[in-house]
Amino acid sequence: MPTDPTTTPTTPAAARVTIRRATPDDAAEVVTMVEEIADLEDQATCVHVHLEQWRRLLTRPDVTVLLAERGSRQIGYVSAIRQHTCGPAVTCSTSTISTSAPATATPGSAGS
């Protein structure tokens, strides 16, 4: 079984991608990435959540934003909102993944 190049010692530290949950301190970077992907998709007029709203959203347990980072730079995100239905089921809706930096990862890594 091939090893994951994002976690093996042979991958230079500068090329490794890490994933972590966003905090309210990351709100400005989340706003930037959301606006960038909206601009690329010609959907900028559809963005209605701004900095202070993101700060509040990132404190909620039903809102998850995962950031992909290379070094100290955020290069992408994925977000989900947990929604409870009338029954015991839980549904999850996710947003588009954004990358604000060119992908340089190797096949099988987090960036491909």
Indicate the topology.
Elements: E1 17-21, H1 27-40, H2 51-57, E2 63-70, E3 73-84, E4 90-94, E5 98-99
Task: Please summarize what this structure is.
This protein has 112 residues and is of the alpha+beta class.
User: Any idea how many domains?
Assistant: 1
Radius of gyration: 16 Å
Beta-strand residue fraction: 25-35%
CATH topology: Aminopeptidase
Q: Give the biggest beta sheet.
A: 5 strands, antiparallel
Give the full name of the CATH homologous superfamily.
Answer: Gcn5-related N-acetyltransferase (GNAT)
CATH architecture identity: 3-Layer(aba) Sandwich
Structural class: alpha+beta
Q: Helical element count?
A: 2
User: What number is the mean pLDDT?
Assistant: 77
Order of helices and strands: EHHEEEE
Helix coverage percent: 10-25%
The count of strands amounts to: 5
Task: Describe what you observe in this structure.
The protein is α+β, with helices and mostly antiparallel strands. The protein has one domain (16-99): Gcn5-related N-acetyltransferase (GNAT) (Aminopeptidase). 19% of the residues lie in helices and 29% in strands. The chain has 2 helices and 5 strands; from the N terminus they run E-H-H-E-E-E-E. It has helices spanning 27-40, 51-57; strands at 17-21, 63-70, 73-84, 90-94, 98-99. Strands 1, 2, 3, 4 and 5 form a 5-stranded antiparallel sheet that branches. Strand 2 and strand 3 form a beta hairpin. The longest helix is centred in the first third of the chain and has 14 residues, at 27-40. It is globular, with a radius of gyration of 16 Å. It starts with 16 loop residues before the first strand and ends in a 13-residue tail after the last strand.
